[in-house]
Specification:
Strand order of the largest sheet of chain A: 1-9-8-3-4
Helix content of chain A: under 10%
Order of helices and strands of chain B: EEEEEEEEEEE
Radius of gyration of chain A: 13 Å
Distance between the termini of chain A: 37 Å
Structural class of chain A: mainly beta
Order of helices and strands of chain A: EEEEEEEEE
Oligomer: heterodimer
Largest interface: A-B, 19 and 25 residues
Number of strands of chain B: 11
Distance between the termini of chain B: 36 Å
Number of helices of chain B: 0
Number of helices of chain A: 0
Structural class of chain B: mainly beta
Number of strands of chain A: 9
Largest sheet of chain B: 7 strands, mixed
Strand content of chain B: over 45%
Shape of chain A: globular
Largest sheet of chain A: 5 strands, mixed
Amino acid sequence: DAKTTQPPSMDCAEGRAANLPCNHSTISGNEYVYWYRQIHSQGPQYIIHGLKNNETNEMASLIITEDRKSSTLILPHATLRDTAVYYCIVRGGGSNYKLTFGKGTLLTVNP
Amino acid sequence: GAVVSQHPSWVICKSGTSVKIECRSLDFQATTMFWYRQFPKQSLMLMATSNEGSKATYEQGVEKDKFLINHASLTLSTLTVTSAHPEDSSFYICSALRDSSYNEQFFGPGTRLTVL
């Protein structure tokens, strides 16, 4: 699976949009981009995933560049409860469903 | 979203004893489940892939005789840490891959194991 690069930490003001970047320059054509987050001492929570097109759900939006070498997770109106480690993961296609977690980005939402 | 439970949520045991952790998918079937371990301030490390009705597949460096995995039904996988030692103290997390949509993988809340 392709490796991802994320900034180790980011800050965001409550109520503002949080934009979390991820680089995955070696991604191949059948690999998906997944985002999960982990609040302290809890299991990871699925946020969103995409292949080529931008995606939006009730939690967030995922913007994938046309060349698919990078993506951005957008939390439109961050709240204090969004403080967590956010993981960007590239998952292989076919029958390999394993998720390989990197170090992620610690997002701190400040009041 | 789908719910995955783990039991117990935390356990403290003496060195040399064995501990069993259960992972259940409550409202969906999961032929494939995964077990992860997470040490403090580190990321999740995949230990093994658990497949219903067949042997688990272990990641490199994970001792299969120490971490026994049984996936006896489509909703239950168990991880047994045999002869636990203090260095096995960690946060153990399972995830389940929903059979109806292989793009969806849901995580349990984790089990905190402390070995004295």
